[in-house]
Design a protein that fits this description.
The chain is an alpha/beta fold. Helices cover about 25% and strands about 20% of the residues. It has helices at about 5-20, 30, 155-160, 175-185, 200-210, 225-235, 250-255, 260-270, 290-305, 330-340; strands spanning about 65-70, 70-75, 80, 90, 100-105, 110, 120-125, 140-145, 190, 215-220, 240-245, 275-285, 310-315, 350, 360, 370-375, 375-380. An 8-stranded mixed β-sheet has the order 7-8-9-10-11-12-13-14. The protein has a 3-stranded antiparallel β-sheet with strand order 1-6-5, with no helix packed on it. A 3-stranded antiparallel β-sheet has the order 2-3-4, with no helix packed on it. Helix 4 packs across helix 5 (about 200-210), helix 6 (about 225-235) runs parallel beside helix 8 and helix 9 (about 290-305) packs parallel to helix 10 (about 330-340). The relative contact order is 0.12.
Length: about 400
């Protein structure tokens, strides 16, 4: 970003976010600016699920398909096989894939959520989290219904664990969303809240329009996308945040109905493609807080991805089907961060803990505070064209000019 006018505009946005977020407004930002976050601005239509509650599901009556899916193969007898995520669903005519967002119509696979977002919201980029990309920027976020995981702890379960016909949704084209992002003064578009893999075609087209309009693009994923669609998508993306939910297959199978191995492959694919990468590990008491497993995870990150990949060690709060568990003790987060330090990772953050010292970015060489944060608010920025102003150490990321 160049020019005094642009710099003043950025500072004004930072000041606005600082005041709003420190005051605790958080997810109300979309409501305050007149945007639509269909799970957050409107009053709740039903109470939050309690631990183990079986929520009644209506008879599936998805809307008519409107956009052909990408990355699928036609099989015999009208069957198709989806190739976007690791599940590789084989879907009979008239049926839906595991994510419920795609339907086989007479041997042609269609996206049901294309142009039907369930959430549109402006967020600070730090909320993604993306701590090493355009500090203080505003991102225009898009999400839809459903997911290809079944995480018992999901705090966005009202979107990710519901189907298109169970949630309110909007009628917005990719061009509409890019125009909204520009009108709101956002510097980037982002894909988040539920798993973007399940609205791959919609995300791809929005990102393509955004890049043509001069915006940045990033997304937050569970890492279950297959290599071919990931590489195609990365041509349009500047940054990816990946949830590495645990470092055991048992956790992925029992808590997320998923698998660890595809996530590790995805992390390597993103790194090999040269895209900016950040990792989130949500530490859940009794389920993935074993410090030996965390040590193995950190060693794998250093060996396979490098020691300069930012790692966000985040605090769990009770939600969805895990409401009987306590919040993660801060001491556990600090012990995990100390292990990451000992394993040689250079940029280790503690998230979901507003005011913690590890909300901020420090130079790994001289210890200088480079980006001072309070939760998602950037309070001070000292980077000099991506370098520490004190010792000159280069800090990996995407920085303002």
């Amino acid at each position: 970003m160049e020019g005094d006018g642009q710099a003043r505009q950025l500072l004004n946005r930072r000041q606005f976010l600082k005041e709003l977020l420190v005051a605790g407004a958080g997810t109300g930002l979309a409501c305050a600016l007149g945007l639509e976050f269909l799970g957050g601005c409107s009053s709740a239509e039903e109470p939050a699920a309690t631990a183990g509650e079986a929520r009644p599901r209506p008879t599936p009556t998805p809307p008519p398909p409107s956009h052909e899916a990408s990355f699928y193969q036609r099989l015999d007898n009208g069957f198709i096989q989806c190739g976007v995520c690791w599940r590789r669903c084989v879907v009979a005519p008239g049926k839906l894939g595991f994510c419920n967002n795609k339907k086989n119509v007479d041997g042609t696979y269609y996206s049901l959520v294309y142009g039907r977002p369930g959430a549109l919201q402006i967020d600070p980029i730090e909320k993604e989290p993306a701590f090493h990309m355009l500090p203080g920027a505003l991102i225009f976020c898009t999400g839809t219904a459903s997911c290809n995981n079944r995480c018992k702890f999901c705090h966005n379960w009202h979107l990710s664990q519901r189907t298109l016909w169970e949630v309110p949704n909007l009628d917005r084209s990719p061009d509409d969303i890019v125009a909204l992002a520009q009108e709101a003064g956002c510097q980037a578009v982002s894909f988040t809240y539920n798993e973007p893999t399940v609205f791959y075609e919609f995300m791809y087209d929005i990102a393509a329009r955004a890049k043509e309009a001069g915006l940045w693009a990033l997304f937050h994923t569970n890492g279950g996308m297959n290599r071919e669609p990931m590489l195609a998508l990365l041509k349009l993306m500047d940054s990816v945040t990946v949830d590495l939910k645990a470092f055991t297959e048992e956790f992925y199978e029992q808590v997320s109905s998923s698998r660890l191995a595809p996530v590790l492959s995805t992390l390597e694919t993103i790194r090999e493609a040269g895209k900016h990468l950040e990792i989130v590990n949500l530490v859940i008491p009794t389920l993935n807080d074993n410090l030996d497993d965390i040590r193995r995870m950190c060693a794998w990150i250093r060996t396979n991805l490098g020691d300069d990949v930012p790692l966000h060690i985040n605090r769990f709060f009770p939600d969805y089907k895990l409401q009987r568990l306590p919040p993660t003790p801060v001491q556990t987060l600090e012990a995990a961060a100390a292990i990451a330090d000992a394993e040689g990772l250079q940029y280790v953050y503690i998230g979901n803990t507003p005011g913690h010292r590890r909300n901020s970015t420090f130079c790994p060489r001289c210890g200088e505070t480079l980006i001072l944060r309070a939760h998602f608010a950037v309070l001070d920025l000292k980077l000099d064209h991506g370098h520490c102003p004190t010792c000159g150490h280069e800090i990996p990321g995407i920085w303002w000019d």
